[in-house]
C-alpha cells in the first residue's frame, strides 16, 4: 500500500468521524443508534457499539481501520 493510499484512507476516516456536528451530538439521546458510513457503505459493529459520552461520539477505531483495509494486530 502506497503512502498516498494510506493518507487518502486516513483522510476518509477523519471526514467520516467528523460528520456529526456538536449540535447533532448533543441532540442525540443516549439510546439512539449511531451509524458510521465510509464511502457509502455502513460500517457494522459486532461487539462494541459507538457511544456518546460527555457529548463526544466514541467509535471503535479497530473496526473502522479494518473497514478501510488496514491489517490491525
Structure notes:
It is a single chain. This protein is α+β, with helices and mostly antiparallel strands and 73 residues long. The chain has one domain. Helix content is 38%, strand content 14%. The protein contains three helices and four strands; from the N terminus they run H-H-E-E-E-E-H. Strands 1-2 form a two-stranded antiparallel sheet. A two-stranded antiparallel sheet has the order 3-4. The longest helix is centred in the first third of the chain and has 15 residues, at 3-17. The two termini are 17 Å apart.
**Portion of residues in helices?**
25-40%
How many structural domains are formed by the residues? 1
Which range does the strand content fall in? Answer: 5-15%
Strand order of the largest sheet: 1-2
Spans where pLDDT lies below 50 across 5 or more residues: 20-27
Please count the helical segments: 3
Distance between the termini: 17 Å
- Structural class of the secondary elements? alpha+beta
- What spatial form do the alpha-carbon principal axes imply? globular
Q: Give the biggest sheet.
A: 2 strands, antiparallel
Protein topology:
Layout: H1 3-17, H2 22-27, E1 37-38, E2 41-42, E3 51-53, E4 56-58, H3 61-67
List key phrases describing it.
globular; 4 strands; 73 residues; alpha+beta; two-stranded antiparallel sheet; 38% helix; single chain; 14% strand; 3 helices
